[in-house]
Amino acid sequence: MHDAVSSFTAVSSDQGNLQMERVPLNDIANQFGTPCYVYSKAAISHNFLAYQSALADKAHLICYAVKANSNIAVLQTLAELGAGFDIVSIGELERVLRAGGDPSKVVFSGVAKSASEMQRALELGIHCFNVESEAELELLNNTAANCARVAAVSLRVNPDVDAQTHPYISTGLKENKFGIDIDRAPQVYQRAAQMSHIKVVGVDCHIGSQLVDTAPFVAALERLLALVDRLGELGITLDHIDIGGGLGVCYNNEQPPTPENYMAAVLPLLQGRSEMLVLEPGRSIVANAGVMLTQVQYLKSNGEKNFAIVDAAMNDMIRPALYQAWMDIQPVVRSDVPAAVYDVVGPVCETGDFLAKERSLSISTGATLCLFSAGAYGFVMSSNYNSRPRAAELMVDDDQVHVIRQRETIEDLFSGEQLLPSKAG
Ligand SMILES: *Cc1c(COP(=O)(O)O)cnc(C)c1O
User: Fold this and answer.
1) pTM for the full model?
2) Which residues, including other chains, have CB under 8 Å from residue 398's CB and lie 6 or more apart?
3) Atom of ligand 1 at shortest distance to CA of 280?
């Protein structure tokens, strides 16, 4: 079991005792407390470099999707390897800067960019805006005119391809809110090309997340290329083609393509074309480079079901509650107590507050559990619901552990809040 686990994560097993790189996870839990997120610097680097080497023969820009895990130490690790970044807010752009990222390698996605966000991104000279509507194009043109800049633009088109993933993370169908209908795109490009402060540089799409097959990517790229050719006939040439993110990872028994497999499916379509290929991978870089550690507070049985009540909850990791996501969970130290089948649940007052259901675990009260594949859409989606301070984040680098985000304190919980003025008289 653990060997299978170690083949797709940063975690390995030494006779049932789990470690990340050269640090036992139990030591981390003891030293830094639980719940906490732990990321492997080597795994993040490895996953990024897999894309880079698969693209060695093609002009490319790999823009890590910051929303998957936006800790500045994670961004720093990727910036040092030459990554670009895909952002969806000005907050993410400021994180990239703080981490030492290069704004000229930033693409700005998102359906609702505000004028002030556009202005800041224009001042910094980002690579391009991924524009999602004609209204946004107009606002961008006006904003750029006001600050005497020219905005580099890629239109996010909706290729109407079914990513065959969970409906909440499927984004490339006509019914979704994202992008410009591909059939209308030539018209919008022609409008854009006539705008005084817009420079058309590319086209992009992002059809969904956690894709475990290359076929939808290939179908989307074929549609994009037909559009690029049509634009060429209209005298509009592009510098880059951005096929978004979305490559899936193994949480359970999925067998997603590796970046190498993925590029082997995509690159033949680009043979003989000069446009740079842009990618926006998020999950596939960080998901399996991170885990969440949590401690068993109570074991409880109601005759029909056993519950392991742990100190992490849906506010710390919402994926199981939000997407019915299955995530592997194992004790960090091997135990000889007989295994039983548990629902692993948190302290939050919601029935949806679970991390895992019906898992066979050999555990006692006080055991530390490792929730695998927690590096993407984990901490970034955490909240203070139930007035729970958010977890610490740690980065393992070989035999070193670095605190990359302090655990929040109780004082932090209401630091921005204010009491009403007391009544006079
Ligand atoms: C979320 C998102 C990504 C990253 O998706 P992953 O599935 O994490 O690779 C890339 N591009 C856009 C526009 C996104 O919204």
Assistant:
1) 0.95
2) 21, 22, 42
3) 10
- Whose Cα sits closest to atom 3 in ligand 1? 245
* Ligand 1 in reach of 68 Cβ (< 6 A): yes
Question: Is 349 assigned a catalytic role?
Answer: yes
Alpha carbons 307 and 356: distance in angstroms, whole number: 10
Model confidence pLDDT, tens digit, residues 215-257: 999 999 999 999 999 999 999 999 999 999 999 999 999 999 9
> Percent of the chain, pLDDT > 90?
89
- Ligand 1 geometric centre to CA of 171 (Å): 10
- The stretches in the chain having pLDDT less than 70 are 1-9, 166-175, 177, 425
Helix (H) or strand (E) holding 360: strand 354-361
Determine the distance separating the centroid of ligand 1 and the alpha carbon of 176, expressed in angstroms. Answer: 15
State which of 209, 212, 242, 283 you would mutate to test the pocket of ligand 1, scoring each by most atoms of that ligand within 8 A of its C-beta. Answer: 209
Paired tokens of 65? 């999707």
Domains within the chain, CATH numbers bracketed? 1-40+283-425 (2.40.37.10), 109-281 (3.20.20.10)
Which residues does residue 370 pair with via DSSP β-bridges, in sequence order? 293, 330
